[in-house]
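Researcher: Excuse me, tokens okay?
***
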Amino acid sequence: MTTQAIYTAVVSGDDVVGGLLGAGFNGEIHRPGDAQYDVLRQSVVPTFDSRPLVVAEAQSRSDVQAAVRAAAQYGVPLAVQATGHGTRVPADGGILLMTSQMTSVLVDPQRKIAKVGPGTRWVAASAGSPASTGSRPTA
């Protein structure tokens, strides 16, 4: 009988921060103990208490791509929180990616299309539109 040892690497917040920066992440990165960490990781669901290694605030599509690459490189979970609803996927031991700063709204009335950033709240996206805002226009 042969026994095979299984080695699981322990990934630290420093590793993930280095991976984010190395992949070209330009947004702010928050770790446990930082002033904004606890505020940013909160979900609207009070029983949901995710504990990511880092909270990364994306400013662009390239930041989102960098976060995906870093999560894959270190084999850690990646959860995305876009606006006010919060995430429903745990990011324990991984990266919580915030897209709330990505709030562009580009409208092409001639083609009747709009391109809306992932952090845009519905009230901003629907300005001047007859579209319904649902029950939470600030989400």
In short: The mean pLDDT is 81. The longest strand covers residues 54-57. The longest helix spans residues 61-74.
